[in-house]
Amino acid sequence: MPSDDPVRAETRNLRRVQLLVDTACAYAATGALSPEQIPRFVEDVKAAVLRVFPDKGTVFELLYRPRLERAASYCPLPT
Questions:
Q1: Which of 28, 30, 59, 78 could hold 72 in an S-S bridge, CB 3.0 to 4.6 Å?
Q2: How far apart are CA 73 and CA 2, in angstroms?
Q3: pLDDT of 22-58, one tens digit each?
Q4: Residues 71 and 25: beta-carbon distance below 8 Å
Q5: What distance in Å separates the CA atoms of residue 18 and residue 12, rounded to the nearest whole number?
Q6: What's the pLDDT score for residue 34?
Q7: Can you tell me the distance from the alpha carbon of 15 to that of 76, in angstroms, rounded to the nearest whole number?
Q8: From CA 3, how far away is CA 11, in angstroms rounded?
């Protein structure tokens, strides 16, 4: 198989997006973002995803935005 196989490239890009969103959700769930920062954070993640898959804005809105917003709304209890 050639190294520029489109299926392999698509799979690699999908893994990259999954890692990006997983990492962003983990960061958002730490409570490090203020409520005012959350919309900008989500838009920054969306911009990064759209750089990898420019035509997948609808997918981001349906799958990733709700997940990011749920993670960002989580606030750990103070110890």
A1: 28
A2: 44
A3: 999 999 999 888 889 999 999 999 999 999 999 999 9
A4: yes
A5: 10
A6: 87
A7: 28
A8: 13
- Give the integer Cα–Cα distance in Å for 41 and 25: 10
Domain ranges of the chain: 6-73
Task: Tell me how far apart the alpha carbons of residues 42 and 79 are, in angstroms, rounded to a whole number.
Answer: 27
Q: Which residue has the tokens 């898959």?
A: 53
DSSP string, 20-35: HHHHHHHHHTTT-S-T
Question: 0.90 exceeded by the pTM?
Answer: no
**Using CB atoms within 10 A of its CB, is residue 4 exposed (0-12), middle (13-18) or buried (19+)?**
exposed
Check residue 31 and give its pLDDT. Answer: 87
